[in-house]
Write a structure and sequence with these properties.
Elements (H helix, E strand, L loop, with lengths): L1 H11 L2 H4 L15 H23 L3 H18 L6
Helix pairs in contact: 3-4
Length: about 80
């Protein structure tokens, strides 16, 4: 079954997505670099903390504000421009 799924994915996925070597200049392979992985961990922690805050104060206005701020910070952290 795993072999069948792997063959199906190889047939569907484009050739540039099959290469998973880290490259900071490539738009897809950038996500395999160590710096991007660290940024994703930070964003994951940000969202967990945001969810905890929303559970502590379950109002729609607060949830909207925290959600929008978390989204903005996530986009800022994962921005693809040079640092």
């Amino acid at each position: 079954m795993k072999l069948l799924i792997k063959m199906l994915l190889l047939a569907i996925i484009p050739a540039w997505m099959q290469n998973e070597q880290p490259d900071s200049q490539h738009f897809y392979r950038r996500q395999f670099t160590k710096s991007y992985q660290r940024k994703r961990i930070i964003v994951r922690r940000l969202w967990v903390c945001s969810a905890f805050l929303i559970l502590l104060f379950p109002t729609m206005v607060f949830a909207s504000i925290v959600g929008l701020m978390s989204t903005f910070l996530s986009f800022c952290l994962l921005d693809e421009t040079n640092e």
